[in-house]
Structure to design on (1232 residues):
């Protein structure tokens, strides 16, 4: 066909039929319309052929055929075909016109009422008038209301009304069949049908199904391809049968079939050859079933699988018109030209037909015509008109010049060079500066002249030229190849817990010349759209997709597609949402027995994590203590039913939970309740024993049964007892333990037993146990107590046992009472510490019937006494009459209680120590050894030893200040030397300025702190600082002591940088003071004059009150001189008692202050806090965060020896920047 953009005048057009005639049924002359419209140049004319014979003369403007007013209807019936003449002749489809009079109903006699019994089946026949048009049937009542249809009442394709079984309320007199013939626009109501249904006992006699339609067990159906197939299966029976459809050779596809009329119809629309086969219908109720087989054969009217096309041809070309038609049976294909069969025309050697293909060789302009191909079989025929137009037309390039093509790497590009002419123009493609395009293996030319380039790359970017051979026509095109869009981080396969968030990545790269690409996410091939009102999906600019609060429905296949104007790329991932399993359901109890029941259940959803086990829970209503759900048992996942053993006289409920890798499901709905009947007890209580505490009573106790073990009402315990050796049992009953028998005597053996009993009887016969009446204290004491020495601190104690009768109970053993009477003697300076009572009085227990016991861990140089007594559960008996006395010898002393040292000078070290807590004898002196340790060696060949007297202080002189000494000190007794106490130490090291400091800057001051060396000598230094500004000058602080650990520079300017140095030394540091913060006050009442005046008056009044308070405070308070003296005496007494170094807190002092002594207390606190008497002995310690804690050391004595008392922290908080710190921390640690 000639393209619309080809410019050429005076080109003729073959006729084309635009409206085809359609087969139909005419009920009147007005219905006779056979349309036939066409286009062409020159304008076409029309003629009609009926039943193969000329019917109408030539028509000009329109070919539509209608009936004339006076014509008879019946003769018009026939087969019609329209012929359209112009540049050749086109032929229409064959149309069948059927004529019928408008259907009417013959007069019918009113039928008698038909009588039925309830439960019978029935058929009401419609018998509509015969017509070529199938009427639509409506069963209605006299008020034009449809008869309700259901599984029991339905209609068939023939219009009859079928009852599978009748009910009494089916009785009525106005069943009316209405036949609606749509083409004739008429509704024909049939005569009313009356039926009467009488009740009958036969309704109780159910019957198996039978088919009302179709009849028999087999039927056959022929259906044409494209038509609709409807199979009927209408059964009768009682109860109403259910219908199931099957296909014998393959399962029925819900996408292909529909079930209508309550599954009484199976319908397949647009039947294809694949629907050919055997189908079955099964009708079934409780009485049986019936089956019907349907053999469906699918045939086909002819249809085209290949069509010939209209073309313009140049003289001398070969024309090949290919067509192919299919059908069942196979259609016959014939060719015609301009309405006349080719087989009936003069033979032409240039024209022949082969397998349905018409071939014309060396065509000329005279061969221009309309060729028709027609396919026919027994089911119908089809026809196609094909135009062969032989003409000479000049060539033209129809594609626009200077087009620019863009593509990405790897794509296939088509550079267009669309041409038209007759004959078809030949084109040639050239690459600028590279020669013929077809020389490149990736490039090929299509039949219509376009250049196809496959797998393009950046090297293919160039200018291309298309030119028409034998003419000077050409166009140019530019190809630009860009980088391919890539997904560099595709979505992954994620497994996510329900409720968590999931993020699917989709990072990509695009060419910089392309605009921002479009990102489209899909879930299971459906687009995902994010909304501002819903944060379920959030798409990020980098391509990732965030899914919030994932649920089970979010599981699926996710794909992201990155699209630009040139290409697109996609990648897929998945999300599997994991969750606890769904609750099991459909719990059923079966096989109900007196002591067991079988529980079954259906599994819940696995939620993408396989179920590993089930947890069965039960609740017993009979037992108040068990009135809650408790786990009964766990079973593997392949078990869905379980026999559960039950207790009598209880009501049970059950429920089930599923467990998977994520967790445990919610419980299933509870099962129905199940109650077991009562029974005699199955068991007796356990642990029957006597726990008698009174010496003249027998207390029997036992472990109570759980209430669910009572097995019935009226439960109690029956208690039996008799003295051992008696034959007669005493008995009683109780509801719970204990049971007390009074007056049996002391420690008499009894046989006892307890039996469970309820209203239905007693439990099994219990076994008798041995019990005893209450015990009393033993009467005898052990005799022949003797002691033999095993070593210096260990002895062996022996005794003779007491008689069994005197124990008056179960002998639990003997107790050895050891009392320490103190050391035999002690040195004047080796005062022992007060021993606790547990050390002075010891009790060693010998369990059972032992007659000897090893007594160890006695103290050296001590006196002891011991006695032995028997004991039972009631208590101890009398102690042995003879008190044994023993004494231990001296031993080596224990270690010193403490060892400290200090260095009064560079060559001296003073050692101080405390006597051993355990001297183990009389101290005779001390042994001091010291030496210089050699790193990596344990040699002590340079050790010096000194025997010291009983003093607790010694000063070593002429020491080397550069050496770290190792000291070892031990105490001596006549038995030898004791364990040493060791330590290392050296004299004071040389002082130096601090190398690491901490700076905290305020607005006008800066706090400087540092950590002194471990034991440095005091060193004096100063701080030098410079304000970094035009007028800045170096300033130097006063001298600072290295042990001071804190200093404050003040008088600084806010908001400036400062440089800080330490002299002497090379330390340099910079800091910046804080700047003042300025705030603009909003315009409000605080800026009003009246408010400012009020505040000023309040400030003045507050100032006056503060002055009065200060005056009153400076006058001081009165206190009792006697109280003051008593305080001093108490202080002296405390020191005298040896509590050296133990200080009382200020809080305790304050608690003792009376109201009259308040000023004295304040004075004491002030003096305690003052540093005036301590000089430079302040010790500043630092916390880990750099803050510091001031601690006082003791007051130095005139010789420079500091106190060994403990230091006490005072006011550890950092001071405000405004406080001045000249050369000490007095201001920082001043009065509270």
């Amino acid at each position: 066909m000639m393209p619309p953009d080809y410019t050429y005048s005076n080109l003729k057009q073959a006729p084309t039929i635009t409206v085809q005639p359609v087969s139909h049924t005419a009920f009147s002359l007005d219905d006779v319309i056979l349309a036939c419209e066409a286009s062409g140049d020159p304008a076409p004319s029309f003629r009609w052929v009926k039943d193969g014979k000329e019917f109408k003369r030539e028509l000009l403007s329109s070919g539509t055929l209608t009936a004339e007013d006076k014509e008879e209807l019946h003769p018009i019936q026939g087969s019609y075909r329209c012929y359209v003449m112009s540049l050749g002749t086109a032929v229409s489809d064959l149309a069948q016109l059927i004529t019928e009079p408008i259907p009417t109903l013959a007069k019918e006699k009113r039928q008698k009422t038909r009588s039925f019994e309830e439960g019978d089946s029935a058929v009401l026949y419609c018998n509509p008038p015969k017509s070529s048009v199938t009427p639509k049937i409506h069963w209605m009542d006299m008020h034009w209301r449809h008869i309700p249809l259901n599984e029991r009442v339905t209609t068939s394709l023939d219009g009859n009304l079928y009852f599978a079984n009748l009910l009494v309320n089916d009785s009525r007199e106005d069943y009316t069949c209405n036949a609606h013939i749509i083409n004739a626009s008429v509704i024909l109501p049939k005569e009313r049908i009356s039926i009467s249904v009488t009740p009958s006992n036969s309704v109780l006699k159910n019957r198996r199904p039978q088919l009302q339609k179709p009849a028999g067990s087999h039927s056959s159906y022929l259906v044409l391809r494209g038509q609709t197939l409807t199979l009927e299966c209408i059964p009768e029976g009682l109860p109403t049968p259910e219908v199931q459809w099957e296909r014998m050779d393959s399962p029925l596809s819900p996408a292909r079939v529909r079930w209508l009329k309550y599954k009484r119809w199976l319908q397949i629309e647009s039947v294809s050859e694949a629907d050919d086969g055997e189908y079955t219908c099964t009708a079934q109720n409780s009485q049986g079933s019936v089956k019907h087989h349907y053999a469906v054969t699918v045939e086909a009217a002819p249809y085209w699988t290949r069509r010939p096309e209209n073309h313009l041809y140049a003289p001398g070309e070969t024309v090949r018109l290919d067509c192919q038609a299919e059908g069942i049976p196979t259609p016959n294909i014939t060719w015609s030209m301009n309405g006349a069969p080719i087989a009936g025309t003069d033979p032409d050697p240039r024209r022949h037909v082969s397998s349905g293909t018409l071939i014309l060789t060396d065509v000329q302009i005279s061969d221009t015509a309309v060729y028709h191909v027609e396919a026919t079989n027994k089911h119908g025929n089809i026809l196609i008109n094909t135009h062969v137009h032989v003409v000479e037309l000049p060539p033209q390039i129809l594609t626009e010049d200077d087009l620019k093509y863009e593509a990405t790497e790897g794509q296939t590009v088509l550079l267009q060079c669309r041409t038209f002419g007759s004959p078809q123009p030949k084109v040639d493609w050239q690459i600028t500066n590279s020669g013929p395009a077809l020389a490149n293996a990736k490039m090929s030319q299509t039949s219509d002249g376009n250049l196809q380039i496959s797998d393009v790359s950046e090297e293919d970017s160039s200018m291309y030229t298309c030119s028409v051979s034998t003419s000077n026509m050409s166009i140019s095109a530019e190809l630009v190849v860009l980088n391919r869009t890539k997904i560099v981080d595709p979505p992954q396969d994620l497994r996510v817990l329900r409720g968590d968030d999931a993020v699917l990545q989709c990072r990509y790269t695009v060419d910089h010349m392309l605009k921002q690409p479009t990102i489209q996410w899909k879930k299971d091939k459906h687009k995902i759209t994010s909304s501002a009102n819903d944060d379920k999906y959030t798409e990020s600019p980098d391509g990732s997709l965030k899914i919030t609060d994932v649920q089970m429905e979010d599981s699926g296949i996710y794909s992201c597609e990155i699209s630009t104007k040139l290409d697109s790329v996609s990648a897929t991932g998945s999300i599997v949402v994991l969750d606890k399993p769904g609750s099991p359901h459909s719990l059923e109890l079966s096989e109900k027995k007196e002591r067991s029941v079988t529980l079954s259940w259906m599994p819940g959803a696995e939620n993408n994590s396989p179920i590993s086990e089930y947890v069965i829970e039960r609740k017993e209503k009979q037992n108040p203590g068990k009135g809650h759900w408790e786990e009964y048992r766990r079973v593997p996942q392949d078990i869905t039913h379980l026999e559960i053993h039950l207790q009598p006289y209880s009501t049970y409920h059950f429920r089930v939970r599923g467990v998977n890798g994520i967790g445990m499901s919610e419980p299933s709905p509870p099962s129905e309740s199940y109650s077991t009947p009562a029974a005699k007890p199955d068991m007796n209580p356990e642990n029957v024993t006597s726990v008698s505490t009174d010496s003249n009573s027998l207390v029997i106790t036992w472990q109570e049964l759980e209430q669910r073990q009572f097995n019935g009402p009226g439960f109690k315990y029956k208690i039996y007892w008799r003295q051992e050796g008696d034959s007669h049992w005493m008995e009683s009953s109780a509801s719970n333990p204990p049971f007390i028998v009074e007056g049996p005597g002391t420690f008499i053996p009894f046989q006892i037993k307890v039996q469970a009993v309820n209203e239905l009887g007693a439990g099994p016969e219990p076994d008798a146990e041995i019990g005893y009446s209450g015990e009393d204290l033993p009467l005898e004491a052990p005799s022949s107590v003797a002691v033999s020495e095993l070593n210096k601190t260990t002895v062996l104690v022996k005794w003779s046992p007491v008689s069994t009768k005197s124990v008056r109970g179960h002998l639990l053993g003997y107790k050895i009472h050891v009392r320490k009477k103190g050391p035999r003697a002690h040195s004047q300076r080796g005062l022992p510490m007060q021993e606790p009572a547990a050390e002075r009085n010891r009790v060693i227990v010998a369990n059972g019937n032992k007659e000897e016991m090893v007594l160890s861990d006695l103290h050296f140089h001590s006196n002891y006494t011991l006695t032995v007594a028997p004991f039972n559960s009631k208590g101890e008996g009398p102690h042995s009459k003879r008190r044994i006395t023993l004494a231990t010898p001296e031993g080596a002393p224990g270690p010193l209680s403490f060892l400290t040292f200090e260095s009064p000078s560079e060559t001296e070290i003073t050692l101080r120590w405390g006597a051993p807590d355990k001297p183990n004898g009389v101290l005779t002196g001390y042994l001091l050894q010291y030496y210089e340790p050699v790193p990596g060696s344990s040699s002590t060949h340079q050790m010096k030893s000194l025997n010291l007297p009983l003093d607790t202080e010694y000063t070593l002189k002429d020491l080397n200040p550069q050496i770290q000494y190792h000291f070892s000190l031990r105490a001596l007794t006549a038995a030898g030397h004791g364990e040493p106490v060791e330590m290392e130490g050296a004299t004071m090291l040389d002082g130096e300025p601090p190398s690491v400091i901490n700076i905290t800057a305020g607005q006008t001051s800066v706090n400087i702190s540092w950590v002194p060396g471990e034991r440095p000598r005091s060193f004096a230094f100063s701080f030098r600082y410079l304000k970094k500004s035009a007028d800045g000058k170096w300033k130097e602080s006063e001298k600072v002591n290295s042990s001071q650990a804190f200093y404050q520079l003040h008088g600084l300017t806010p908001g400036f940088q400062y440089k800080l140095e330490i002299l002497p030394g090379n330390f340099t540091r910079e800091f910046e003071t804080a700047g003042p913060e300025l705030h603009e006050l909003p315009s409000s009442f605080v800026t009003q004059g009246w408010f400012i005046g009020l505040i000023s008056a309040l400030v003045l009044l507050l100032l006056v009150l503060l002055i009065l308070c200060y005056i009153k405070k400076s006058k001081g308070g009165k206190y009792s001189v006697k109280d003051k003296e008593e305080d001093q005496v108490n202080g002296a007494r405390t020191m005298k008692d040896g509590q050296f170094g133990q200080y009382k807190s200020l809080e305790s002092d304050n608690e003792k202050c009376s109201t009259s002594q308040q000023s004295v207390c304040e004075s004491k606190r002030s003096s305690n806090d003052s540093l005036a008497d301590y000089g430079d002995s302040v010790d500043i310690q630092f916390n880990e965060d750099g803050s510091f804690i001031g601690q006082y050391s003791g007051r130095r004595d005139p010789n420079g020896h500091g106190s060994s008392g403990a230091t006490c922290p005072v006011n550890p908080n950092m001071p405000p920047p405004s406080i001045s710190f000249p050369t000490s921390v007095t201001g920082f640690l001043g009065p509270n």
User: Anything to note?
Assistant: DSSP finds six helices and 98 strands in the chain. Residues 826-832, 1077-1083, 1117-1232 have pLDDT under 50 and may be disordered.
